[in-house]
Amino acid sequence: MNRELTVVDVRLTPVLVADPPLLNAQGVHQPYTPRLIVEVVTAGGATGLGETYGDTDYLELARPLAEQLVGRSVTDVNALFGLGLDVDEERVRGALDAGGLRGVRSADKLRLSVLSAFEVACLDAQGRALGLPVHALLGGRVRDAVEYSAYLFYKWGAHPDGVPYEPDDWGAALDPAGIVAQARLFAERYGFSSFKLKGGVFPPEQEVAAVHALAEAFPGQPLRLDPNGAWSVPTSLKVAAELADVLEYLEDPTLGTPAMAEVAAGCGVPLATNMCVTTFGEIREAFLRDAVQVVLSDHHYWGGLRNTRHLAAICAAFGVGVSMHSNTHLGISLAAMTQVAATVPNLHHACDSHYPWQSEDVLTERIEFRDGRVAVSERPGLGVELDRDELARLHRRWTEDDGRLRERDDAAAMRVAEPGWRTPVMPRW
Ligand SMILES: [Mg+2]
Known about the structure:
The chain is built from 15 helices and twelve strands. It has helices at 56-69, 77-80, 89-92, 107-130, 134-137, 176-190, 204-217, 233-243, 257-266, 283-288, 299-302, 305-318, 331-341, 388-400, 410-417, and strands at residues 7-18, 32-42, 47-53, 145-147, 150-153, 195-198, 223-226, 249-251, 271-273, 294-297, 321-324, 373-375. Strand 8 (249-251), helix 9 and strand 9 form a beta-alpha-beta unit. The radius of gyration is 20 Å and the shape is globular.
């Protein structure tokens, strides 16, 4: 073994990152969201970076994993996935991730969500040590830049009174005109030319009107709508019929593979998902029933960049499209998404990213979108550098929090404004 590549230290830094009041089917984003930054340090002095969810369950798994990694090689990535990680199956079974926005929670998905940050950090460290970009370690890029979509949200102008928060400069968007104005800002600021609206917030007819307004404002440009499973099968079919001429795809209109299969059979719009196919075990039923036509991968919960490529290969074999899902994330994850997306030949849809919504980052330089694309870095590893002062500042915020914001809970955030709010029973409409 090359001793230079031996892990001598792993640093875990939970942070709280400012997040605008973005609305979804479960509630609203909290003013700060938890993320975990992983640093893997080698004997040769390379430090690899990774990022994942920062809620307590993830942190508790990351700590023993960090201990087990010391003394191993950063090239030993397959073995990483065989390390023992105790998860209380009873506690996680049946619970939903982030209020249900990422499908059914399982012990495996929790494990993979933590392992993925370590996998990315090991690949970054390898790349830095060898002087190669991560995409080269995955077989090399097939494109120079990765296209992203503008991720539109219904949102308030500010978080509710009493919540300390620096106001964002996006303004409110609560109707079709507001959504179109937001889309124009995305196009102006970043050059995005495909648009995704997060739905499931208002009754479907209002969201249909918003998509029609977008189609009028951006004729012929790809549009998507994602209500996170808030609709019944009949509602999904009705919306699909009304938007058939303007949608690139409809994302998770309804919950579960059987219901998605029913919608897919009855409408001409392709269905995409990051909720009913979120693990390898869920692929078989969904593909055999033709329930989904596009799978939105997410390297965090699929278990890293190599698993993302495995998923893409399976999708290719079944003629199913592939693109990428996003939760609130920072630049380390955007760099990782871009490196792996650059290597996937059958990625034919713009990827999702929350990054433009994040005014804060832990990098020395923000990653730029030009013409809606992120250029694939040729620098070693992920090609990004940690800003230690910013990391320390965001970690201090996490340390000083009384524990309320350390768990992402969109329903709890909604109750600050609407005390009677309960997570809606799905399908809501
Ligand atoms: Mg989605």
